[in-house]
């Protein structure tokens, strides 16, 4: 538990403009709960709230990234470092699928993208409901609820705020590949190894290697760093925000923001505009009307053909980007290379085409609060949101690359026919809700009863079209194509709709603010289910005991607050099913009857009317306290979350011809309630806060340990894919494959050590015969690792001394692996380059080290089946601790601010993602936070400078 300090109005001349003068009294922190607020000391559930100071000190382009590491049990992971990317947020581990929390922004159900794009300067409160307290939101709250309240404006004179930062972004890590000379030598070695060490079949002769090393003929014998040639050296990000607030009977807050961010791709950038206005008008002593309106427009413009990160990883350093005469590169180590001339990532990004996206979201709400008598409150609210997204992509014609050696065009590098595709998506949500509450104090007893009902109507529409052979490159209009033939290659549209209806109630009781009891019941109905399964019921009960108010604790002067709490309840989830999965889809197809092809209709995706709600049962006990005049604070939670009837796709008998697929557009199997998944864990938060004469100091740490267990599956049959297994007794995210024991030696070969492939030689991966039957085959596969961290933790340290402030935020994960194969680690895969770590740590004919970190190198297709199976050889430790943010600020003294008409003026500098301690000691050129087997757009670190001013 924590408190907020109220201060007197007297200003001290030499204090910074945002300092805290003499303490008067302390008021307990208020947190958001479902459909209201409560003092934190009266809350019985596990609710994490975000310190607004953390948001102020983190100038990021994503609100989600700003709270990374700040909350126990909340795991946030960067998705991509590119513009517009949205980090993922999970609460208390992972289930089978669809474990995103529910986002509620000013009472409106919202998306992860809506939350990510909020401006930190607009935020009043953020709370995350992690246990049965989320039951008030019922069917969509199974994996937590993120509640957001934006600023409403304070009373009094108008105040103007201005916030700005300008930053410079570079990759946290870029892959480190060998240079051209080393690449050529390794390629020769690979062919030597592939020929079973008989003879020396060289890909490159010594003359070619020497010419490359000399650098005297870069047209024919180049040495190219493709990452340096493809990406910007540095990308700029600029953010400007202004807000006004004030009022008396009508309080208002309005903000306007503009964010401009360059991509590392030199042709790509993003512009984001945001607007928000919130008002609260007290029309009488009994009636208040509130309005919330926001609009965000995000445009991403890529004037190139985009960067294919896999192709970038494949192209070799022996290939030139451009010839000296300006032609695109065609020469690879003295020879023309048609393949790489065609896949040149710089050429494709520069001339391949362009794309423009326009992403708009409007959200508006109107509510009225009426208090006819003391304690009775009636609230009616209507909310509307509309999301529109348009993407237009033009694929240009391409002139052929010319052969630099013969001056002749290379026909395979040309693209004679262009095309333009456009898609448009629109989502509309209409949400209405009515609430009535009554609270009453009777002697030492406090009662509050809340009842409500809500209804949602959601409609989604999409349309897409495509046309080829357009008269001019860059024409972003399907209608302009009629100058040729007026027809489209492709035209599709789709409409979906669902409705959601709820009734709910909550009762709060406490005695002397010492003993607290809370009960919740909610009933939800969704049109996604068949009528017989449409309703779900979600009850919860919570209780807490303020031990510090007992006489046997009051006498312990070092204890300020101490509260024991517990909760039990159920929530639901429908994230993994579509709008109509209870019905069978019908698709068009063609069949041959006799000598004719005729149209036909067939089941496209089977429906299942027996689909029911996922039910998530949560148990939680916790202990909160503060000690030594609130200098030390702590909170401990132990929880269990059991997902019953987890929704997943189940493979039907293959004789049906109905196939399961990870792509929902291809998958033909119906989702069913197929299993039970449990997450158990513990969360600990510790804090130290100290005020002194010229400033203050704080340190906060949080730790969360989670264990995931699959308790049951339908028919108890495991589900597999290329890398993972889902099985009873296992965990979500289990990698499934072969264990390895280093590399094969010649002695192993001579002694007939069991091999996975008969062609394996000394220096190849040595797979373990798990079952001891003398054969290495698929029966030796087992669980080899997991991609979900079981331990997450965060640390924040900061303080203020006179006019200076400093804050440091760190975040980390442990006990987690990442699977990196293919282009990200394997030499010559699909023609890829070679990582430096491969060259430095490989097995060689001269150094036959069975414990080498990398096997003998082989050319693509030469014996590579031995490394192509899933095994722990390609598992890397993804544990890390990262200093997410370091901010140093200086506030102009109040006396100086007053002379120039300011209330506050602060300047600061910030480093984001600059320092990382990593668990992996092998391949050190990947970012453990967002690694990918097929190469990924790099994560970013930022240095920025900014100001906060109030007029």
Instruction: Tell me the Rg in angstroms.
Output: 31 Å
Overall shape: it is globular
Summed up, the helix count is: 13
Strand count, sense and closure of the main sheet?
A: 22 strands, antiparallel, barrel
Return the structural class: mainly beta
Unreliable sequence segments: 1-26
Tell me the helix content: under 10%
Question: Mean of the pLDDT scores?
Answer: 89
Distance between the termini: 33 Å
Structure commentary:
The chain is mainly β and 951 residues long. It has a domain at 739-780. It is 9% helix and 48% strand. It contains 13 helices and 47 strands. It has a 22-stranded antiparallel β-barrel. The protein is globular and about 95 Å long. Residues 1-26 have low confidence and may be disordered.
Question: Can you tag this structure with a few keywords?
Answer:
disordered N terminus; five-stranded mixed sheet; 13 helices; 22-stranded antiparallel β-barrel; mainly beta; single chain; 951 residues; 47 strands
In short:
This protein has 951 residues and is mostly beta strands. It is 9% helix and 48% strand.
Topology (SSEs and partners):
Elements: E1 3-7, E2 23-28, E3 30-33, E4 36-39, E5 47-49, H1 52-56, H2 63-66, E6 74-77, E7 88-91, E8 102-105, E9 108-110, H3 112-116, E10 123-129, E11 145-150, E12 156-171, H4 180-194, H5 206-214, H6 226-230, E13 235-247, E14 250-262, E15 268-282, E16 287-302, H7 309-314, E17 331-332, E18 335-336, H8 338-343, H9 345-351, E19 353-370, E20 376-395, E21 401-402, E22 409-410, E23 419-442, E24 445-468, E25 490-511, E26 515-526, E27 535-546, H10 551-554, E28 559-573, E29 585-593, E30 596-605, E31 614-627, E32 632-649, E33 671-692, E34 695-713, E35 719-720, E36 725-726, E37 734-737, E38 740-743, H11 746-750, E39 765-767, E40 782-786, E41 791-801, E42 804-814, E43 817-819, H12 836-841, E44 875-877, E45 880-891, H13 894-899, E46 904-918, E47 940-950
Parallel strand pairs: 8-11
Antiparallel strand pairs: 1-2, 3-4, 5-10, 6-7, 8-9, 10-11, 12-13, 12-47, 13-14, 14-15, 15-16, 16-19, 17-18, 19-20, 20-23, 21-22, 23-24, 24-25, 25-26, 26-27, 27-28, 28-31, 29-30, 31-32, 32-33, 33-34, 34-41, 35-36, 37-40, 38-39, 41-42, 42-45, 43-44, 45-46, 46-47
């Amino acid at each position: 538990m924590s408190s907020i300090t109220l201060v007197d109005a007297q200003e001290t001349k030499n204090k910074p403009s945002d300092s805290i003068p003499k303490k008067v009294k302390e008021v307990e922190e208020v947190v958001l709960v479902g459909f209201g607020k409560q003092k934190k000391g009266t809350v019985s559930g596990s609710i994490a709230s975000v310190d607004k100071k953390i948001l102020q000190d983190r100038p990021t382009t994503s609100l989600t990234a700003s709270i990374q590491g700040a909350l126990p049990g909340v795991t946030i992971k960067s998705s991509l470092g590119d513009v517009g990317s949205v980090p993922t947020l999970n609460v208390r581990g992972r289930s089978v699928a669809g474990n995103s929390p529910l986002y509620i922004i000013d009472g409106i159900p919202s998306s992860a993208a809506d939350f990510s794009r909020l401006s930190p300067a607009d935020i009043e409160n953020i709370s995350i409901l992690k246990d049965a307290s989320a039951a008030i939101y019922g069917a969509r709250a199974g994996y937590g609820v993120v509640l957001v309240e934006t600023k409403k404006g304070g009373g009094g004179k108008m105040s103007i705020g201005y916030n700005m930062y300008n930053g410079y972004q570079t990759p946290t890590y870029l892959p480190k590949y060998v240079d051209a000379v080393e690449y050529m030598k390794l390629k020769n070695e690979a062919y030597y190894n592939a020929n079973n060490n008989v003879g020396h079949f060289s890909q490159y002769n010594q003359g070619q290697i020497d010419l490359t090393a000399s650098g005297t003929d870069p047209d024919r014998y180049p040495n190219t760093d493709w990452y340096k040639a493809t990406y910007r050296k540095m990308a700029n990000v600029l953010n400007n925000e202004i807000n006004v607030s004030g009022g008396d009977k009508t309080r208002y807050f309005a903000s306007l923001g503009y964010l401009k961010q360059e991509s590392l791709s030199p042709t790509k950038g993003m512009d984001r505009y945001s607007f928000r206005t919130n008002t609260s008008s007290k029309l009488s002593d009994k009636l208040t009307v509130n309005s919330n309106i926001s609009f965000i427009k995000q445009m991403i413009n890529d004037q190139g053909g985009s960067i294919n990160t896999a192709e970038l990883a494949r192209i070799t350093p022996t290939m030139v980007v451009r010839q000296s005469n300006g032609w695109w590169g065609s020469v690879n180590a003295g020879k023309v290379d048609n393949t790489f001339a065609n896949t040149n990532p710089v050429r494709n990004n520069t001339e391949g085409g362009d794309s423009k996206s326009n992403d708009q979201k409007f959200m508006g709400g109107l509510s009225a609060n009426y208090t006819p008598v003391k304690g009775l409150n009636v609230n009616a609210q209507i909310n509307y949101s509309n999301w529109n997204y348009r993407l237009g992509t033009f694929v240009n014609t391409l002139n052929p690359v010319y052969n630099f050696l013969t001056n002749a065009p290379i026909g395979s590098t040309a693209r004679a026919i262009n095309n333009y595709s456009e898609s448009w998506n629109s989502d509309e949500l209409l949400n209405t809700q009515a609430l009535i509450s009554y609270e009453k104090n009777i002697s030492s007893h406090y009662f509050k009863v809340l009842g409500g009902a809500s209804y949602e109507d959601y409609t989604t529409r999409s349309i897409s079209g495509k046309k080829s052979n357009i008269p001019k490159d860059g024409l972003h209009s399907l209608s302009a194509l009629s100058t040729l033939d007026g027809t489209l290659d492709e035209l599709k549209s789709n409409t979906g709709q669902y409705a959601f209806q709820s009734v709910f109630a909550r009762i709060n009781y406490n005695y002397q603010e010492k003993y607290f009891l809370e009960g919740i019941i909610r009933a939800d109905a969704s049109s996604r289910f068949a009528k017989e399964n449409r309703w779900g019921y979600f009850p919860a009960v919570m209780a807490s005991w303020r031990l510090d108010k007992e006489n046997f604790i009051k006498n312990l002067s070092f204890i300020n607050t101490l509260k024991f709490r517990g909760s039990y309840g159920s929530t639901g989830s429908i994230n993994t099913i579509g709008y109509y999965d209870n019905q069978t889809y019908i698709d068009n197809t063609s069949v041959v009857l006799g000598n004719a092809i005729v149209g036909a209709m067939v089941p496209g995706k089977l429906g299942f009317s027996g689909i029911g709600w996922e039910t998530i049962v949560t148990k939680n006990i916790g202990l909160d306290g503060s000690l030594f005049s609130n200098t030390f604070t702590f909170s401990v939670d132990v929880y269990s979350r059991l997902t019953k009837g987890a929704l997943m796709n189940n493979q039907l008998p293959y004789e049906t011809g109905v196939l399961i697929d990870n792509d929902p557009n291809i998958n033909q199997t119906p989702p069913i309630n197929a299993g039970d998944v449990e997450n158990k864990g513990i969360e600990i938060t510790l804090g130290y806060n100290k005020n002194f004469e010229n400033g203050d100091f704080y340190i906060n740490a949080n730790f969360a340990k989670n264990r995931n267990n699959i308790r049951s599956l339908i028919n108890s049959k495991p589900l597999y894919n290329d890398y993972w297994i889902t099985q009873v007794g296992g965990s979500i995210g289990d990698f499934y494959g072969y264990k390895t024991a280093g590399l094969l030696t010649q002695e192993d070969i001579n002694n007939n050590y069991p091999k996975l492939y008969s062609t394996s030689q000394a220096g190849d991966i040595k797979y373990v015969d798990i079952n001891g039957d003398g054969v290495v085959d698929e029966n030796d596969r087992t669980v080899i690792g997991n991609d979900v961290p079981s331990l997450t933790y965060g640390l924040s340290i900061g303080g203020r001394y006179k006019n200076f402030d400093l804050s440091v935020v760190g975040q980390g994960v442990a006990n987690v692996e990442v699977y990196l194969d293919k282009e990200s680690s394997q030499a010559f895969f699909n023609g890829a380059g070679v990582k430096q770590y491969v060259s430095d740590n490989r097995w060689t004919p001269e150094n036959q080290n069975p414990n080498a970190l990398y096997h003998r190198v082989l050319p693509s297709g030469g014996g590579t089946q031995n490394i192509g199976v899933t095994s722990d050889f390609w598992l890397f430790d993804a544990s890390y601790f990262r200093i997410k943010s370091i901010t140093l600020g200086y506030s102009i003294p109040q006396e100086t601010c007053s002379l120039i008409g300011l209330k506050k003026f602060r300047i600061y500098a910030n480093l984001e993602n600059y320092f990382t301690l990593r668990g992996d000691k092998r391949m050190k050129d990947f970012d453990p936070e967002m690694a990918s087997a097929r190469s990924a757009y790099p994560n970013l670190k930022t240095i920025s400078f900014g100001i906060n001013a109030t007029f």
